[in-house]
Amino acid sequence: MTQFLQQMINGLSLGSIYALVALGYTMVYGIIKLINFAHGDIYMLGAYIGFIVTTKLGLGFVPALLISMVGCAIIGMTIERIAYKPLRHATRITALITAIGVSYFLEAGTQRVMGAGVQTFPNVFVNETIMLGNVRISTQQIVIFVVTITLMVALQFLVNKTKIGRAMRAVSVDGDAARLMGVNVNAVISFTFAIGSALAGAAGVLVGVYYNSINPLMGMLPGIKAFIAAVFGGIGIIPGAMLGGFFIGIVETMVAGYGSSLWKDAVVYIILILILIIKPAGLLGKNTKEKV
Amino acid sequence: MLQVKDLSVHYGMIQALRQVSLEVNEGEIVALIGANGAGKTTLLHAISGLVKKSEGEIIFLENSLNKATARSIVSSGITQVPEGRRIFPDMSVAENLLMGAYLRKDKKGIEEDMQKVYERFPRLNERKKQLAGTLSGGEQQMLAMGRALMAKPKLLLLDEPSMGLSPLLVKEIFSIITEINKQGTTVLLVEQNARMALQIADRAYVMETGKIVLSGTGEELAASDEIKKAYLGG
Ligand SMILES: Nc1ncnc2c1ncn2[C@@H]1O[C@H](COP(=O)(O)OP(=O)(O)OP(=O)(O)O)[C@@H](O)[C@H]1O
Ligand SMILES: [Mg+2]
To answer: Is the dihedral of CA B90, B95, B99, B102 positive or negative?
Structure first.
């Protein structure tokens, strides 16, 4: 039981990271039906921005988190403007290949500027371990969890209760109808990239804090897992990405803890295959049925 | 109020509108009738700025809309109720109405107009929180019209509001259109239901394969033999 609880806590921490990244995948997919394969690299850039802010500028965790989120939002909007917007009416495969190209560009660019090797992310706050019975919780884990939940609540509020959130939902179901209401669709798409990228930026800083090491290719595998998490929950559905992220994080940690860490990635792919067979629309996905 | 001059629209190689000219005066109900594929929806989309014009000009309240965006067209006072309603199915009735008021900033005015919409369509009032996608076809049409009214349009474009509705509901919708017009909103009404449209229209245009082929007052057209044969079933 102790071990189970311990794995659960570790899984929730990892799952928080996946969930934050998965949200960006799902929001962008929801609004322009693009699988933004460069999204994992935004998360990597978020970690690097956090690294620069803490080491070069000597600032603490909160400024690093905020600056990274703003930085990633700007990067995300810029990428959308330069790489994806001109392809708005192109075939989906064209946009997808472009996204892969953007991903390579960001990875190679970071290697060039920051070096290809691993960098050590500094300890930005005193890390203590709290014992709950025999279960260990670190301050880092608590911070990760609190930041993630706060961002998720804020996102839910933004999407469901604000005017811009309504516009995002409108554009994602019917762009032309939204246009007829006077919505500036391009601005809404840009805003969606900004929010999704900011969440990835936050995840990047959190992961830097958690694992203390970052590198230019660190976005690849978590990017894929977060994408699987988004598909698992139902791509385009925001609560689905949250659920999927936590689920994948917990499963991965459990497999590594009880079985073998050699298996943890394979199990995630098996889950993807199973969900695609059993419920292709994802756990929270609807069977699309529309009134004529 | 609205002048469309020699408007042509192409979809790739297909020419959907051929030098269409039409005029709507303030206070009128103008009907536009024509068979499937005649280009009626395309014309409304061009007025709303959803499709590119290849030729011609659209003038609204003395201003050319040629450079206008869909957004600025809405804020200049033209709102469209699109074909097939296009309500936002995953949003509640109330949220759909708020979408209609998207460009308005006057919170109080929006609140008041929402009440007016609920008074005009009591069925929506009973279903404020219901998801729009679960409304019946007639209720969705009312919601689409209510949503458009939330923008306080000077000119309301209606694309086949009677589509798929029972005769009784069609009557109700048409009487609501007349009422909206009486209260000061000019209406351009696209319809397949020529009989009903000509009854309430001050003037009407008939469109065939991208061209205006006939125009006149609603009564004139309703009495014309050509129209009787082609659109009124004898
Ligand atoms: N997005 C599009 N791409 C290509 N062709 C189109 C497009 N939209 C409409 N068309 C074509 O333009 C012509 C006019 O279509 P439009 O929808 O304007 O007709 P309509 O008069 O509204 O017909 P209906 O009464 O059936 O609604 C048709 O031949 C149609 O096939
Ligand atoms: Mg049509």
So the answer is: negative
Pairing state between β B186-191 and B155-159: parallel
Task: Please name which of B202, B203, B205 lies closest in space to residue B231, comparing C-alpha atoms.
Answer: B205
- Residue-wise pLDDT tens digits, B200-229: 999 999 999 999 999 989 888 888 887 777
Dist. CA A225–CA A219, nearest whole Å: 10
Question: What are the boundaries of each domain within chain A?
Answer: 2-219
Pocket test for ligand 1, best of B4, B42, B193 (most atoms within 8 A of CB): B42
Q: Is B67 exposed, middle or buried (0-12, 13-18, 19+ CB in 10 A)?
A: exposed
Task: Give me the residue spans of the domains in chain B.
Answer: 2-231
> For B77-132, how does the pLDDT look when each residue is reduced to its tens digit (9 = 90+)?
999 999 999 999 999 999 999 999 999 999 999 999 999 999 999 999 999 999 99
Strand partners, B159: B190
Measured CA to CA, the distance from residue B153 to residue B90 in angstroms comes to: 25
Which residue in B has a C-alpha nearest to residue A173's C-alpha?
B88
The answer to whether B91 and B128 are in contact (CB under 8 A) is no
Measure the CA–CA gap between A257 and B1, rounded to whole angstroms. Answer: 73
For chain B positions 84-123, those within 8 Å of chain A (CB to CB) are 84, 86-91, 95, 98-100, 102-103
CATH 2.60.120.10 fits B2-231, yes or no: no
A75: tokens are 């990067």
Prediction ipTM score:
0.93
B212 close to B205: Cβ distance less than 8 angstroms: yes
